[in-house]
Structure formats: C-alpha cells, structure tokens
Amino acid sequence: MFEHLRLELRRGSLVLAVLAALRSEQYGYTLRKALAERGMEIDEGTLYPLLRRLESHGLLESEWREEDKRNKRFYRLSTGGKQTLKQLLAEWRSINDSLNGIL
Amino acid sequence: MDLVDRYIQAVKLWLPRAQKEDIAAELGEDIRSEVQEREGELGRKLQSAEVESLLRRRGRPIVAAGRFRKQESLIGPTLFPIYATALRALAVPFVVLTVVRWTYLFITSPSIRGEAPGALLLHAASTFWTTAFLLFGGVTLVFAILDRVQGRTGLLTRWNPRDLQPIREKGRIERSSSITELAIQAAFFLWWIRPQALLRLESHGSTWSAGPTWEHLHHGFFFVPVLIVSLAMIGLSCANLAKPYWTRTRLAIRAATYWATALLSAIVVLQGWANSRGEWRLLRGAGDHVSGAAGATALTDLLIYQCLVWVAVGASIAFIVDVVRAIRFRSPGDTELRPAPQSTEAFCL
Predict the structure, then answer these.
(1) What residues of A are in contact with residue B59 (Cβ under 8 Å)?
(2) Domains of chain B: which residue ranges?
(3) Using one digit for the tens of pLDDT, what is the confidence trace for B280-322?
(4) Vertex B68, ends B66 and B74: CA angle to 5°?
(5) Please, are residues B200 and B209 in contact by the beta-carbon 8 Å criterion?
(6) What are the tens digits of pLDDT across the range A9-60?
(7) Which chain A residues contact residue B64 at CB under 8 A?
(8) Which residues of A touch B27 (CB under 8 A)?
(9) Nearest-angstrom CA–CA distance, B97 and B313
C-alpha cells in the first residue's frame, strides 16, 4: 500500500520536475539521467508520453538534431511553458506551506 | 543492435498511426543511448544477454506502445458497474431458462428424445452458446452506444434529487403489494370453491366447459390441498397488511406455500402427461364435430400445460429464495453490540 501511495505522490510532482529540468535544453535520455541524479527516477515509458503530452499542450518545443552522428530529439520550454512553470512553482510553494502547517 | 531494431519494429506495430515514426525513432535513440552508456562503463560491447535484459526491463512491445495511446474503453467507468449488473442479472435466468427449456423439450418432443446423447449435447451446447453470445453481445452493444451518446444527451448529468427513491426500510412489506396479493388470493379462493361460474364459456353456438381431467382434479385429491394453500396465502397477506414487516415465521410460511404450489403443479403436470399420453384435456368443446374445435381444445390444453410447468418452476425458485431469506433473516432490532475498536479505546484512555 505504501509503495502505491508513494508512486502516486511522486507522479504528482513529475510534471513540475520535467518542466523545471527543461529550463535548459535536453534530449530524452539526458533528461532522464538528470532527473535520476536528483532523486526523481522516471522510466522511459512514463517520460516520453509525458513529453509528448506537454508538447501537445504547447508547454514544450522540440526538434530533431544530429549529435554524435545520431539523430536526437531535443526539448526545451516554450514561452507558455515558462509561464506555466512559474505558476506551478508558486502553487507548489503554497502547497508546501499548507502541508507544513498541517504537519 | 539487431535485437534493438526488432524490438522497435515490434513496438511500431502498436503505436498511434500519426506519430508512429517519430515515437519509434525517439524510443530507438533512448535505447541506443542507454546501451552506449553501459558499454562506456564496462569498457566493452554489451553481450546479447545484456541487451535482452535491457529490453525485457522496458516491457513487452505492445505494453511499451500502449503508454503512448489514449486511454480507450468500450464501456467507460461510469456505466461499467450498471453494465456488469445487467450481465449478472441476465446470466442466472438465462441459464435456468435454458435448462428448463431443454428439459421440457426432452420430455415432450419425441424427435429430441430420439437423438443420440452426444448429438443432443452438441445441439444443446451450440444453441446455448449462440444465444448467449447474441444476448451478451447485444447488451454490450447497447451499453457501448449509451457510453458514447451519454455525453451528448446528458443522460448522466441531468437528474432531479426529488426523483430519488424513498428510504427503503429493510424487511418492510409494501401495503400495496399485500393488498394486491390478498385480492388475487381471495379471487382465486372464490373461484376454486365455485369454479363452474367461470369455467364455462359460450361462443358462436359452441360451449366450452371443463374436461374430464379437470373434473377429476377438482373433485378429487387436489381440492383440499389447493384450498389449504389458498387460505394460508390469504392469512399471510392479512398478517402482512396488519404488521408490514417480515418475520422469520412468515417467510417460512410463504416458503411452505411456494413449496406446496410447486409440488401440486408438478403432480398435476406429471399425472396429466402420464394419463393422457401427451394430450391433456382440461377443456372439452361441447361440439367436437364443429370444425376447428378439436384443434382449439388441443391448443388450450397445451397452453394450460405449459403454464403449469412454469408455475412449478417459478414456485420452486421462489421457495428456494424464501428459504435462504428465512435462514439469513435478521429482524431490525436484532443487532449485536460490538466492542469499540482498539483505536477508540486508546484515544479514550
């Protein structure tokens, strides 16, 4: 039961984590590594559909580029994405404050 | 990298058509990046088993591709419980009716009885499954359509709290149903003690009256038992009117009346079949020489016979249901005081 709830808690934070990590341009694999190094492990089956969903909502922009003789898709925040990230961060801080009050 | 390419090819089969190439390219690149990083750490090429392990961790191709598809369902979560209830409600009556029908056919149809057991079983099974698929397929189709139109029609969003059912008290007997039962039982009782008034029809010069089997039944063994059952049902209806809550005793009495009804119907049916060799003459046309009279009598006989069969089956099922209810019965005031849960006790202390 704890594992299930833990996953739910982490799932709620993923969008914010991904948007925050994409303040600098990255491609999928390096994004995954960057998040994992900061304690937010995410498997490719979750990350890539999430990236596509965020892009379809206009929060991200992407393009294919060649790097090290391989084609890679690079993602970065769009203007709308930056605005949304700002709002989500404010919301996150508000939630944190509320939770601290309850705990 | 052959294994990786084969994996990506398999995933592509299940990807949404519009983004197939794009997603496949991105997934392929992710896998190759992971392979490259591992090879860098190990200082050598990955072996086949290691690549297999990496792919196995990513999941079966159809599962990996499924994560990129929208959540789709034939019947959504709102209607699904109603759909499941409808299927369950249909399943038992369907099986029961099928068994009864085939038993009836076996008893009454020489051609069915003449079939070899294996062929008969195959015949019954194929009819059963065909009907089952049609029935349950039809229900599924109806609910799938409802699921798609409910958003547009407001089927599930437009409702009035005033239309909600009144609170149902457990074990309460509706007065209207007691009154209806009493009226039907009283009418039957009056008819039973003086049936001649209703069992004589005149039409176009012909007179229909009770046949020899009926007269044998009514004036013979069955008169008193049917009378007793009818009186018991009248008494039960009056008691239910006066005190409209079920008790174990009254449930048991009702079960007993159902049992008696099933038994009497079954005896009548079997007696008529055995004695009449397939012809059951409850009514006798006064002018058998009139064309069509014999056919009409035979048809009436068959209808009455079939009604009696269904009465026997229905009363048997009702008997079993009432026996179970009587066994499980708990009166409204009959609740055990349970000890308070541990956490509450700890809090109080």
Answers:
(1) 45
(2) 1-167, 170-198+207-333
(3) 455 555 555 555 556 666 666 667 777 888 888 889 999 999 9
(4) 55
(5) yes
(6) 888 899 999 999 999 999 999 999 999 999 888 888 899 999 999 999 999 9
(7) 45
(8) 44, 48
(9) 10
A11-21, pLDDT tens digit by residue? 889 999 999 99
3-state secondary structure (DSSP) of residue A32: helix
Nearest CA in chain B to A68: B33
CB nearest to B30's CB, from A28, A46, A64: A28
Identity of the residue in B27, B34, B59 whose CB atom sits nearest the CB atom of A48: B27
- Checking B174-180 for CB contacts under 8 A at 24+ apart, the result is B174/B244, B175/B241, B175/B244, B178/B237, B178/B240, B178/B241, B178/B244, B179/B237, B179/B241
pLDDT value at B162 more than 80: yes
Give dist(CA B249, CA B322) in Å, integer. 11
Is the pLDDT reported for residue B347 higher than 50? no
What distance in Å separates the CA atoms of residue B192 and residue B147, rounded to the nearest whole number? 52
* Contacts of residue B291, Cβ cutoff 8 Å, sequence gap at least 6: none
Distance from CA of B154 to the nearest CA of A (A): 28
Interface of B with A in 42-101 (CB under 8 A): 58-59, 63-64, 67-68
ipTM reported for the complex, 2 dp:
0.85
B26 closest CB neighbour out of A30, A43, A73: A73
Q: What is the dihedral of CA B160, B166, B168, B173, to 10 degrees?
A: -130
Q: Nearest by CB to B59, which of A28, A29, A45?
A: A45
Which pLDDT score is estimated for B191? 83
Question: A50 to chain B: which residues are within 8 Å by CB?
Answer: none
